[in-house]
Design a protein that fits this description.
Mean pLDDT: 91
Helix content: 25-40%
Order of helices and strands: HHHEEEEEEEEEEHHEEHHH
Number of strands: 12
Distance between the termini: 50 Å
Bound molecules: dinuclear copper ion
Strand content: 15-25%
Number of helices: 8
Largest sheet: 5 strands, mixed
Structural class: alpha+beta
Shape: elongated
Strand order of the largest sheet: 3-2-1-5-8
Length: 347
Amino acid sequence: MNRRFLVVVALLLLGAALAHNVTILSDTPVNREVAMLLKWVLAFSVVIFGGVAGFLLYTIVRFRARRDHVPGAAGEALPAQFHENARVEFLLTLIPLLIVLLLFVLTAQALVKINRPIAGAMPVEVTARQFWWDFKYPDEGFRLSSEMVIPVGRPVEVKLTAADVIHSFWVPSLAGKTDAIPGETTYNRFQATKPGNYYGYCAELCGPSHANMRFRVIALDPDEYQRFAEAYRAYQAPEPRTEREARGQQLFLQRCAACHTVKGTPAAGVIGPDLSILGNRVTLASGIMENTRENLIRWIEDPAALKPGAQMPAFKGQLSNADLEALADYLESLKLEGFDFKALPKY
Ligand code: CUA
């Protein structure tokens, strides 16, 4: 009895030691709850696996066939025969029941904690569309697309909806998934604890470019965020500095302004992403590729070639190479000076 007791204690300690090593990628309130649950589940899993595998091994070794043993030989005593053992059955029902109950209570508690509105959280209105993300900041009075900028250390309350079909907002390192549903508002509350460039994904099959519907969350130190928010509130797109940029601006206002917004210009379309600070963006086309000049031109030439189902028309054949270069010059000039999001660590 004592030895068996010791084995169980040893297994419990092993489970606890393994579970203790669970590390979380980003120490946010949501991840803390998930890690807490994971520790419990892992601890029970180790104990149960150890127990079952241990008994199995013991039985295999202890009751293995012996070379000199003839099964059913005369005079061989039969092993104890019984149909059921009420005490064992009771225990094997009760123990899993208690484990499941405990996990249920812990999970329910975690869910309540995660879904509670947080006083002082920064609201961001997020709209999911085929196949990109739009971020409106009601308190700041500005709008960003594809890359959501937030301060570290302050909870963010994402108010989520969708413009067309169901999508799902997912930033694995910061928060769990929340569906974005047309005509409804859902909420996802999270908080970044260190500056970084966090990968975001759409997690609900939403059309041919579901897998290309990504985004980024750019988390900045509070002071840096404050500096960004103030600068972006006051931002007006810079005037073209070269002839090519001027040509690019002219093309942009003719061809792109019906769908895209650039603050400080007549371009105020809202069907497509806000391009006011495209020059600051780390990625293009909602997180699918690096923001480089080459990619920008490839995108303008034929968006659907890179993102099947993209609604932006192709400009291949409509714009000369010189026009494309001019447009790229102009778009690259759209930036807030003094911010480099590309240098942030990626999570
Ligand atoms: Cu949007 Cu998948």
